[in-house]
């Protein structure tokens, strides 16, 4: 069933009775060509591109809870391609191009809004660093504009330009960045995969991975054993536990990242802006709520809820940048479980087990990678060859030290990202 | 969250710097090979449950302590000084 304005109009005339569920709820088959463990954004986009780009449709997505119930439903919805490091730069550039064509491709309204992302800076040194980053983005073929103070003021009038400690010197403006409706992205990919014959199996927890003679044979699940020629792990937040079923230890530590949303208010902020004093970023949702967050709580945790110190820090940063939001009441705060890799960059690679693939380590940047990660992971699974834009996301870089991808230049160590 | 510093008693989390898993106490020999160094620097058990991790009481007594803590419930069940242990 395709969506169109005409269809909406017709349904309005006849009591909205013609809408049907947009994906099936199938029983697992005994065997598949490919099993994808994890029905989040990355898993669903992987299934979609396996079917669409490679014609591989005998595929099951196994999800222990419900589709899109993990980090794809718990993030702050920011889409951008403002990376400088080779390996990251081309990957996120490719992902952003997929975002731009997503709604037409999926025939689904993912509310992709290219409202622009502005990273503010507060010193000459920070300006130089952002000028360099902007040049790297332009070299990659993406867009970047270095704004001076007045340039920022034209776009974002309601921030404090004259803070004594962090005066606004300017900002790096990335007009093609923006936000998208996070749940819709998961649902759109789920619907597209289902329409092409992929089985989306919910409430099906993988409890073991069957390996014989170094070759993957299938998985054990809460709904019985399922055989498969290839098995693809993509379970951010539980990567270490699932990889352990295949005897692997990963360079991953799980951390909390908190986010916050206020009550809906009138439009005051058109773009996504980030405060250069540290980690604080904010945007305004289409419903009017201010959506903002900060840094990790900085200790390993699976609790999916944060502690007060980081909450206080985020509120202080917000008040420093935008005193005008002081009276907005915070409605909700929540925490997600981040797969933190030790160099801050992701992994999309084969494993030592034949037919077993790994996609993890997205740190706090997984949402914008949803289309690119699925596209590149599907390519790897289908062809056993790395997709060029994701070809640097190797697992062995940690053991050899070659090709470590420390975008922030802080050092490849777990507590530094 | 409060951590029980063996020297200072229960102190607020804000006083501590988090180093990470207590694997940092087990530095391999120089010639231990890349597998041992990979395990030391990068790979982690990353347990959802009880873990031992290292915290530095940087805004307190300056001690390094090894804390036993549950990563699912945030319950802290013990702490000991790591003084005298290689770090």
Automatic annotation (TrEMBL), chain A:
Keyword Oxidoreductase appears in the UniProt entry: yes
Transmembrane segments annotated in the record for this chain: none
This enzyme's EC code(s): 1.5.3.24
Range of residues in the leader sequence: none
Co-factor requirement: FAD; FMN
Pfam family, one: DAO
Source superkingdom: Bacteria
Catalytic activity, reaction form: sarcosine + O2 + H2O = formaldehyde + glycine + H2O2; sarcosine + (6S)-5,6,7,8-tetrahydrofolate + O2 = (6R)-5,10-methylene-5,6,7,8-tetrahydrofolate + glycine + H2O2
Matches recorded under SUPFAM superfamilies: FAD-linked reductases, C-terminal domain, FAD/NAD(P)-binding domain
Keywords, ordered alphabetically: Cytoplasm, FAD, Flavoprotein, FMN, Nucleotide-binding, Oxidoreductase
Localization of this protein: Cytoplasm
InterPro entries: FAD-dep_OxRdtase (IPR006076), FAD/NAD-bd_sf (IPR036188), Rhodanese-like_dom (IPR001763), SoxB (IPR006278)
Domain Rhodanese: 34-78
Assigned protein family: Belongs to the SoxB family.
Protein name per its UniProtKB record: Sarcosine oxidase subunit beta
Species of provenance: Octadecabacter dasysiphoniae
Phylogenetic lineage: Bacteria, Pseudomonadati, Pseudomonadota, Alphaproteobacteria, Rhodobacterales
TrEMBL record, chain B:
Domain of life, source organism: Bacteria
Family annotation (InterPro entries): SoxD (IPR006279), SoxD_sf (IPR038561)
Pfam families assigned: SoxD
Protein name according to UniProt: Sarcosine oxidase subunit delta
Organism: Octadecabacter dasysiphoniae
């Amino acid at each position: 069933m395709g969506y169109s304005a005409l269809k909406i109009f017709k349904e309005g005339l006849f009591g909205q009775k013609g809408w049907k569920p947009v994906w099936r709820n199938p029983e697992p088959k005994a065997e598949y060509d490919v099993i994808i463990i994890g029905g989040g954004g990355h898993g669903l986009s992987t299934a979609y591109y396996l079917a669409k780009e490679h014609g591989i449709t005998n595929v099951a997505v196994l999800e222990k809870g419900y589709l899109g119930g993990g980090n794809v439903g718990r993030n702050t919805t920011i889409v951008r391609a403002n990376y400088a490091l080779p390996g990251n730069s081309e990957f996120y550039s490719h992902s952003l191009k997929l975002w731009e064509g997503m709604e037409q491709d999926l025939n689904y309204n993912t509310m992709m809004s290219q409202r622009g992302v502005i990273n503010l800076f507060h010193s000459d040194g920070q300006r130089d660093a952002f000028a360099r980053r902007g040049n790297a983005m332009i070299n990659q073929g993406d867009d970047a504009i270095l704004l001076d103070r007045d340039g920022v003021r034209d776009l974002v009038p309601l921030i404090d330009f004259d803070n004594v400690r962090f005066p606004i010197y300017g900002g790096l403006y990335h007009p093609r960045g923006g936000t998208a409706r996070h749940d819709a992205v998961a649902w759109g990919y789920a619907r597209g995969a289902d329409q092409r014959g992929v089985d989306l199996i919910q409430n099906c927890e993988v409890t073991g991975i069957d390996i014989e003679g170094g070759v993957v044979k299938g998985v054990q699940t809460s709904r019985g054993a399922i055989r498969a020629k290839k098995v693809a792990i993509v379970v951010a937040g539980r990567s270490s536990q699932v990889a352990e079923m295949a005897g692997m230890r990963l360079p991953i530590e799980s951390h909390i990242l908190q986010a916050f949303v206020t009550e809906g208010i009138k439009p005051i902020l058109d773009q996504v802006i980030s405060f250069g004093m540290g980690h604080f970023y904010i945007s305004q949702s289409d419903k009017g709520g201010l959506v903002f967050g900060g840094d990790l709580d900085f200790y390993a945790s699976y609790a999916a809820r944060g502690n007060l110190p980081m909450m206080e820090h985020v509120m202080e940063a917000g008040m420093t940048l935008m005193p005008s939001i002081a009276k907005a009441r915070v409605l909700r705060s929540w925490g997600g479980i981040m797969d933190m890799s030790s160099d801050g960059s992701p992994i999309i690679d084969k494993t030592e087990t034949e037919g077993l693939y790994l996609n993890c380590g997205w740190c706090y940047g997984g949402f914008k990678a949803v289309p690119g990660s699925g596209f590149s992971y599907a390519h790897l699974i289908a062809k056993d060859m790395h997709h060029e834009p994701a070809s640097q996301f190797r697992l062995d870089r940690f053991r050899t030290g070659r090709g470590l991808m420390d975008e922030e230049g802080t050092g490849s160590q777990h507590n530094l990202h | 969250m409060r951590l029980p510093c063996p020297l200072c008693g229960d102190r607020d989390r804000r006083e501590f710097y988090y180093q990470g898993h207590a694997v940092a106490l087990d530095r391999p020999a120089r010639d231990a090979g890349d597998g041992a160094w990979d395990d030391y620097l990068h790979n982690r058990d990353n347990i959802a449950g009880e873990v031992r991790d290292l915290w530095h009481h940087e805004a307190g007594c300056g001690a390094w302590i090894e804390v036993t803590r549950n990563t699912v419930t945030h319950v802290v069940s013990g702490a000991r000084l790591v003084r005298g242990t290689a770090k």
